[in-house]
Amino acid sequence: MAEIELGIMTLADVDAVHEVEEKSFSHPWSRESFVREVQENKCARYVVLREDGVAVAYAGVWFVLDEGHITNIAVRPDKRGLGYGEKVTRAMMQLAADSGMSWMTLECRRSNTVAQNLYHKLGFTDVGYRKRYYENSEDALIMICEHLPEAHPENDPFLREE
C-alpha cells in the first residue's frame, strides 16, 4: 500500500509538481515559476500530497492581507478520483486559517464543473465572472469562501522556529 503524506512544497517537489501542472493545464506554469514561488515569493504557500515520497497533487495560494487567493490546484491524471484534490484543498484551507487568513478566493473555468462541485462542497460560493479570462476566451467563475476551518496558529509551519 502506498504511503500518503501531506506537506509543504519544497524545492525537492518542484519537478513532480511541474509534471502534474503540465499534465493538467493547456497553458502550464513553467518549472522556474514554481522555483520562484518556493524560493522568492513571500506571499506564496503550496501544499503537496506525496505518494511514496513523490508529489502527485498540489494546491497553491497567495496570502494578501487577510485573503488567501488560490493560484492553482491539480492532481496527476492517473490519481484523480481518489480524493486527493479534496485533501490538498482542505489542507490549504487549514494552512490559510492557521496563518491568519479570514477568507479565500479563486477563479475556476466555467466549464470545470468537477472543480466547482468540490469548491461548493468545501463552502465556496459563486460571486461573479471574469469575462474571457482564460487563453481560449473562456469565462472564469469567481468563488469565495468566508468560513475557513478553526485556526490553530501554533501549527503555521512558516512561523515556527525549527
Q: How is the secondary structure organized here?
A:
Blueprint: E1 4-8, H1 14-24, H2 31-39, E2 44-51, E3 54-64, E4 67-75, H3 84-98, E5 103-109, H4 113-121, E6 125-130, E7 140-145
Parallel strand pairs: 4-5
Antiparallel strand pairs: 1-2, 2-3, 3-4, 5-7, 6-7
Describe the structure.
The chain is α+β, with helices and mostly antiparallel strands. 27% of the residues lie in helices and 32% in strands. The chain is built from four helices and seven strands. A seven-stranded mixed β-sheet has the order 1-2-3-4-5-7-6. α3 (84-98) links the parallel β4 (67-75) and β5 (103-109). The longest helix is centred in the middle third of the chain and has 15 residues, at 84-98. It is globular and about 40 Å long.
What's a quick, concise take on this entry?
27% of the residues lie in helices and 32% in strands. It has 162 residues and is of the alpha+beta class. The protein has a seven-stranded mixed sheet with strand order 1-2-3-4-5-7-6.
Give the SSE order as H and E letters: EHHEEEHEHEE
Shape: globular
Give the overall pLDDT as a whole number: 95
- Number of distinct beta strands: 7
Helix count equals 4
The main β sheet shows up as: 7 strands, mixed
What is the terminal-to-terminal distance?
31 Å
Rounded Rg: 15 Å
Which oligomeric state applies?
Answer: single chain
Which percent bin holds the helix content? 25-40%
Range of strand content: 25-35%
Q: Major sheet: order of its strands?
A: 1-2-3-4-5-7-6
- Poorly predicted runs of 5 or more residues: none
Q: Which structural class do you get from the secondary structure elements?
A: alpha+beta
